[in-house]
Design a protein that fits this description.
The protein is α+β, with helices and mostly antiparallel strands and 182 residues long. It contains 4 helices and 8 strands. It has 2 domains: 102 residues, Glycoprotein, Type 4 Pilin (2-Layer Sandwich); 63 residues, Hypothetical protein ph0010, domain 2 (Dna Ligase, domain 1).
Length: 182
Amino acid sequence: MAEENLNLHPAELARRTLDYYLREGHLPNLADSLPPEYEMRAGVFVSLKKDGQLRGCIGTFEPVRENLAEEIAANAVSAAVRDPRFPPVRREELPELDISVDILGPVEKVEKETELDPEEYGIMVRKGSRTGLLLPDLEGVDTVEQQVDIACRKAGIMPGEKPELYRFKVTRYPEKKGPDLI
């Protein structure tokens, strides 16, 4: 991918990375000089949907790569080919996918469920070494109780166990689609 391609909307960077990976079989070499918005480090989730249904979603709640561009690229590929819930995405499927990138803000501990809001905050639950995370503003997750229950199930935290609660905000970048885009 050429250096000028890194001045892209995050979802477009994810799409171009996926296209490159599905053609070449490896991640692209991202440019050394990044635009300022891609030099930061943050946790990132990449979600793939096909016909309105989840097709893959993988992310990191803390950054593990050198910069935001590499975090987006790696998680886009992981969502497409490493999400154990789905078969790997095939290159011919790529035009049918809607891609969304969520960049996570700082995680903060909360003491009570009243400090949560499933539309505004994602949550992370933790009990010992078990951790579960759920992004905010998800279809079908309308209450704090639903959000906590789903995150606990993802973590293997049993009903009756009281997890530590954390919240975070995300900046969501859905793909910009329209007649003149993509």
